[in-house]
């Protein structure tokens, strides 16, 4: 009897769970629903010179002489530098480590000038593919010098063109012995895309040199140790709801020693711990965690730091080609300290100024908290026992100490497969709030998979699509992403966040293609994919309204190449209609706005369209850009959108007021 009751109870529990789950398993397509207010954001990784030589405004390459063959087998402390003796001076130059500015920054140059010659003896830096400078602008120069001889040394710092013509300069004299920071401003009188910086000492003597820095006076929001203004602005113009950083693979690193440690990236730049970049270059970490948080705040994006789950990338040690077996775990006995680092990051971001780490944030100039809400643990890791053990340690500690933080788990590098399944299983066991899915696929994959999240169980973890892109930058690629993003809006109750990846790449140094934005020293080139991302982020909402737009035509054809969505943004009250058409024929339909309430007479219509095979290039950077116009609105708005197009109609609540 007992057994029977137990069985019945179990059955009814099962039935209840099953019915409950089925009721909520799929999004109820017919009902308006709340969707994530943080749906469309950006993914930043120091990949393809995105940070050093990219967003970070520093113009001197290898400013601290820390480049080494470990970064790149052709590199050393003198990479991007040249010993300068043009005026027939002479002496000796050496790379030293005996008495550095700071132990974290061991290498420096020692010059022993025996004859200063006609011009002085010193160093020349060629920047990142040359140093771009503009006439009429000021540049902030600084250097750490260790005057070893008794006498002070006259120093000249100049920006010169390839032929040696001076573009701007400044002079000063060393004072005191020991390491000291000198700062000068250089006013530049001529434009030049590929200048060099020359630092010359004009007397006999011994001098140590380190941390040679040159930044434009104007940085994004004019912060010290700031970001390149034009590039930062193009990123800001996406109006992303969040920014993930610092990666990607960079986060979990090439071997345990290469795991990105956030604490190494804060504080005075000369004290930060530089390291090899997994993408075969170097991280000065001048753009570190403080600067990431500050940039997020500047652009109104929620910060989404991602920390390694205590394991290195499975492709560590060059195992990319054989499927990745190089995952290594931080030794278990060191995990307590690692977990503490994770907790300390939360304190650094959100803690009061009286806390240990909150005080460090305040000392960096930001007493107010950064309002950290999301924290990623792991990046597309192989789900092994080694991973699981460490992930659980971190997850449990964060969950216990900070239940307010939304933890993002990881489910491998692909939209399906072993790691995907194991990652989801672990997320189910731990009830992880959000999991991070990644996929780089053909455009056709995106068009075929627009129903992926319709079937997701609403009772399981929410999803962050942390990295996705179709393989290319043509209009067709961008539209396949647009059609897919429509499906993300429809499923914005289960897909909490999504970010195209990667974000930016320096032309000539791209370790990964495609990217959302390309740049060189002086120009920034947004792709068509960028404009699609921007349209979705700028025109996002937090309520999804089904059934407002109906497409005519054969459903099965349209289902795979076109999509429509209607969202309302409660902050502005605006209503936004989107019609994405990646097909070769125009799409017609009707938007029924009769139930929307008061309608304004007009709305803004923005269209991205053109030849599907075209991409924005350096020769034709504006080949395909959004075009906006004003349209008259009717309660039943009949439309025909062109083949290969994204159409966005924004109905402003402010103009509704006007026409009341
Ligand atoms: O976005 C480029 C790389 O793709 C990321 O670093 C990694 O997470 C993914 O494999």
UniProtKB/TrEMBL annotation:
Keyword terms of this UniProt record: Hydrolase, Signal
**What is the uppermost EC class here?**
hydrolase
Q: Which Pfam families match?
A: Alpha-L-AF_C (PF06964), ASD1_dom (PF22848)
Q: Where are the transmembrane segments?
A: none
Q: What is its EC number?
A: 3.2.1.55
Which reactions is this enzyme annotated as catalysing?
Hydrolysis of terminal non-reducing alpha-L-arabinofuranoside residues in alpha-L-arabinosides
Instruction: Read off the InterPro entries from this record.
Output: Alpha-L-AF_C, ASD1_cat, Galactose-bd-like_sf, GH, Glyco_hydro_b, Glycosyl_Hydrolase_51
UniProt key word Signal: yes
What name does UniProt use for this protein? non-reducing end alpha-L-arabinofuranosidase
Instruction: Please name the source species.
Output: Mucilaginibacter gossypii
Its lineage reads: Bacteria, Pseudomonadati, Bacteroidota, Sphingobacteriia, Sphingobacteriales
């Amino acid at each position: 009897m007992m057994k029977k009751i137990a069985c019945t109870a179990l059955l009814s529990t099962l039935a209840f769970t099953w019915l409950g789950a089925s009721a909520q398993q799929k999004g109820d397509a017919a009902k308006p629903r709340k969707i994530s207010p943080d749906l469309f954001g950006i993914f930043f990784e120091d990949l393809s010179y995105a940070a050093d030589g990219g967003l970070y405004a520093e113009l001197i390459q290898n400013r601290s002489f820390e480049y080494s063959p470990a970064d790149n087998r052709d590199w050393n402390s003198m990479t991007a530098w040249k010993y300068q003796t043009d005026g027939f001076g002479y002496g000796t130059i050496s790379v030293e480590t005996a008495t550095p500015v700071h132990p974290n920054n061991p290498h420096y140059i020692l010059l022993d000038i025996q004859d200063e010659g006609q011009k002085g003896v010193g160093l020349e830096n060629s920047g990142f593919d040359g140093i771009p400078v503009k006439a009429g602008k000021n540049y902030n120069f600084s250097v750490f010098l260790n005057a070893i001889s008794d006498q002070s040394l006259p120093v000249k710092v100049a920006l010169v063109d390839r032929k040696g013509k001076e573009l701007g300069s400044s002079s000063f004299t060393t004072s005191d012995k020991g390491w000291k920071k000198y700062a000068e401003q250089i006013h530049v009188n001529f434009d030049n895309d590929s200048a060099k910086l020359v630092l010359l000492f004009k007397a006999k003597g011994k001098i140590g040199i380190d941390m040679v820095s040159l930044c434009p006076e104007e940085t994004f929001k004019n912060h010290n140790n700031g970001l390149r203004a034009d590039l930062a602005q193009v990123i800001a113009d996406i109006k992303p709801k969040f920014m993930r950083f610092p990666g990607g693979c960079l986060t979990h690193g090439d071997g345990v020693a290469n795991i990105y440690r956030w604490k190494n990236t804060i504080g005075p730049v000369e004290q930060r711990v530089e390291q090899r970049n997994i993408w075969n270059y170097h991280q000065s970490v001048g753009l570190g965690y403080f600067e990431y948080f500050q940039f997020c705040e500047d652009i109104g994006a929620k910060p989404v730091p991602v920390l390694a789950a205590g394991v290195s990338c499975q492709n560590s040690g060059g195992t990319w080609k054989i499927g990745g077996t190089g995952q290594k775990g931080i030794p278990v006995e060191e995990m307590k300290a690692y977990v503490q680092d994770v907790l300390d990051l939360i304190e650094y971001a959100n803690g009061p100024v009286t806390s240990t780490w909150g005080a460090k944030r305040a000392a960096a100039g930001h007493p107010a908290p950064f309002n950290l809400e999301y924290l990623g643990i792991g990046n597309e890791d192989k789900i092994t026992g080694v991973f699981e053990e460490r992930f659980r340690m971190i997850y449990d500690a964060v969950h216990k100490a900070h239940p307010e933080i939304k933890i993002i788990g990881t489910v491998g590098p692909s939209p399906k497969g072993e790691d995907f399944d194991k990652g989801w299983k672990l997320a189910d066991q731990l009830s992880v709030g959000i999991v991070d899915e990644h996929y780089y696929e053909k455009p056709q994959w995106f068009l075929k998979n627009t129903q992926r999240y319709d079937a997701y169980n609403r009772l399981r973890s929410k999803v962050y699509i942390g990295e996705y892109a179709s393989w290319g930058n043509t209009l067709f690629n961008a539209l396949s992403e647009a059609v897919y993003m429509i499906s993300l809006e429809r499923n914005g109750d289960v897909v909490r966040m999504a970010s195209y990846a990667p974000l930016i790449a320096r032309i000539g140094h791209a370790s990964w293609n495609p990217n959302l934005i390309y740049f060189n020293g002086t120009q920034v080139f947004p792709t068509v994919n960028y404009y699609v991302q921007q349209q979705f982020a700028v025109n996002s909402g937090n309520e999804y309204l089904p059934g407002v737009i109906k497409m005519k035509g054969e459903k099965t054809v349209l289902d795979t190449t076109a999509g429509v969505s209607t969202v309302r943004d409660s902050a502005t009250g605006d209503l936004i209609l989107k019609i994405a058409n990646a097909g070769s024929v125009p799409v017609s339909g009707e938007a029924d706005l009769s139930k929307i309430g008061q309608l304004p007479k007009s709305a803004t219509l923005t269209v991205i369209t053109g030849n599907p095979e075209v991409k924005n290039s350096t020769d034709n950077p504006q080949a395909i850009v959004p075009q906006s116009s004003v349209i008259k609105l009717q309660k039943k708005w009949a439309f025909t959108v062109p083949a290969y197009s994204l159409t966005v109609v924004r109905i402003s609540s402010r103009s509704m007021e006007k026409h009341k």
